[in-house]
């Protein structure tokens, strides 16, 4: 569900217990000292085709930590209609989580809303400009970010255990109609 979002600031600690799920729509922003995803918990981000608009979690304060338990999943729910007619096949959502430190790694979870996308999770250092300004030669690493990568699977690339020449032709036709 694409809601109005929320802005949570000055939150001391967030913990998603095993079996629990935290959902962030594309207008949600959570700032907390630290966040923990226990074993078998899940976070789910609502995403549209607009890569610049997505929920975010930022850890702050002296702790600034993201802790990820075993089998903690990161899933996405897509607004499938927003992807209609786009010719893009790769989408990147940078900085869905920004933390001072990250312990553990998410297991890629489900892509809700379309069976035609694959999800990958990227962890990368983020850099900020120092006080000299944007033209600074070497900004210092500030934190680590969690980025989401979506790849649309071409209809023509779908394979079934009983693929036939007719199935391949249908896949090509659907691919042309989608674009």
Gist of the model:
The protein is 8% helix and 47% strand. It has 179 residues and is mainly beta. Residues 127-141 have low confidence and may be disordered.
Description:
The chain has one helix spanning 165-178, and strands at residues 7-16, 21-24, 29-37, 42-47, 56-59, 65-68, 73-78, 90-99, 101-103, 107-112, 117-127, 141-152. Mean pLDDT is 81; it is low at 127-141. The strands form 2 sheets. Strands 1, 3, 5, 6, 8, 9, 11 and 12 form an 8-stranded mixed beta sheet that branches. The protein has a 4-stranded parallel beta sheet with strand order 2-4-7-10, with no helix packed on it. The protein has 1 helix and 12 strands. Helix content is 8%, strand content 47%. With 179 residues, it is mainly beta. The longest helix has 14 residues, at 165-178.
- Main pleated-sheet profile: 8 strands, mixed
Decide which structural class fits the backbone. Answer: mainly beta
Task: Report the span from N to C terminus.
Answer: 26 Å
Shape, principal axes of CA atoms: elongated
Measured on Cα atoms, how large is the radius of gyration? 19 Å
Which band does the percent of strand residues land in?
over 45%
User: Helical proportion?
Assistant: under 10%
Uncertain segments of ≥5 residues (pLDDT<50)? 127-141
Mean pLDDT across all amino acids: 81
> Quick one: how many beta strands?
12
Q: How would the blueprint of this fold be written?
A:
Layout: E1 7-16, E2 21-24, E3 29-37, E4 42-47, E5 56-59, E6 65-68, E7 73-78, E8 90-99, E9 101-103, E10 107-112, E11 117-127, E12 141-152, H1 165-178
Parallel strand pairs: 1-3, 2-4, 3-5, 3-6, 4-7, 5-8, 6-9, 7-10
Antiparallel strand pairs: 8-12, 11-12
